[in-house]
Amino acid sequence: MRLSEAPKIFRLLAQTLHDKSALWAFILGATTVLGFAPFSLFLVPILTCALLFFILQAQSPKNTFITSFAFTFGLLITGTSWIYVSLHDFGGMHPALAALATVILSATFALPPAVIQALLAKLVHSQTLRLLAVFPVGLALSDWCRGWFLTGFPWLSLGYSQIPLSSFSNYASVLGIYGVTLACTFCSGSMGFLFKSWCATQSQSSLKTTLKRGFALPVLVIALSIALGIPKWTQQISRETTSVSLLQGNIAQDIKWSPEWIEETMTIYLNMILQEKSELILLPETAIPLLEKNVPDWYWEALKKHAETNNLHILLGIPEQSEDGKFYNSVIQVGGEDIQRYRKHHLVPFGDYFPMRAITSGLLNYLKIPMSNFSPGPSNQAPFILGNQSLGVDICYEDVFGEEIIRQLPGATVLANFTNDAWWGESLGPKQHLQIAQARSIETGRELLRVTNTGVTAVIDHRGYIVNQVPQFSKTVLRAEIYGRKGSTPYSLWGNLPFVILCLVILAFCVKSTSARLKT
Hints:
By secondary structure, the protein is an alpha/beta fold. It contains 18 helices and 14 strands.
């Protein structure tokens, strides 16, 4: 068979995709979830996006909006099913209302890519430019927009699917996770372009030229990703290690805040602490289900005595109330002369707090979500100084915002995420959250300690690989040795700014090129 003779199966597939583009886009979006943890089939998102761009290439701005919306909606409604679990299984919401809330959230955050791609379709009419540059950049820019739209929900940004197995993950240290997304979408656009060319009848010579154009960008992107794995952006601070113990208490979410279980929970963690002699002992988010001021003095004395006797530091998650009456989701340090504390800054709407409480107070009373009236802590908080290590702290959902994690750099030598993923049960959420934490390690060039209530508790190295982890839903301790690192990656210095500038420059070039063609 000659190269110029497109197989009938390809033309049939192309026609099928175009006939019901929104439905196929939804299916492609749902399939893309296979690229993320726990499946980690990282080539799947590149393939699904290639087919998405192929569908979009010749569509009107209106149809582009609908198709792009369907793709992202399919991705989110399938991949964030844990929202339903948290609202229904642990929040007590009626199944129908929980399902509706999940649909609304997914639909809301499917809007940015739909709007952006529709606008780009209106500005650029060249199908070649749309495939090779415009729609790939538009999708990457959409992921970035989801990171701040309505306080941000960058969950399942395409770049996470490449962490840490694909060489594309190397882009994270320079352009952040959205730079990884951009590398993926460029390859997808080229694949879509090749697919389009394969479906078209061409001469032997023109097809060979098309193949060269289609393969040029992926080869460049892959080669650069491999090259970016060579530089050592950060270095160990010492040849001596620091011992750490991460305590996973496995307190079920449905009993965690029950008055009859509070004493039992505190006893479980106290007994676990007293058995550990590591230099750093970490307990998860809200490990102590009492306000700091309500914890008995004897409990604090037991912790301080253990810390001082063994020359170690204990860091635990606990809610606190300040003198002015505000509540904070905090991590505090026990041991040492001065108490250090971190107060969660990036709060989750309807989780950590209820916006417009005058309107949503009825919903608050209906849901069984304890401690949902937190105030945000300062946006810039110093790392904890713990012996020869400086610990950059974040709590739960905060680690999905890479541009906020770097605020504690370059001072922090190690990162630590304190979380409680028990809200998500046995859904995909905890494994996806772990993959997100792995991306933060690559972006910052730092080891990351992840301590959770029910899992996944893990230690991640500076390249994003899991050094050690313990099983979910088990009462256990993860013990490890860390080095700590100094230095700065390009991303930790500049954040998302280079990525945004790069995207805007590419889009400006494409728009200008289209305008020039229209004039001629």
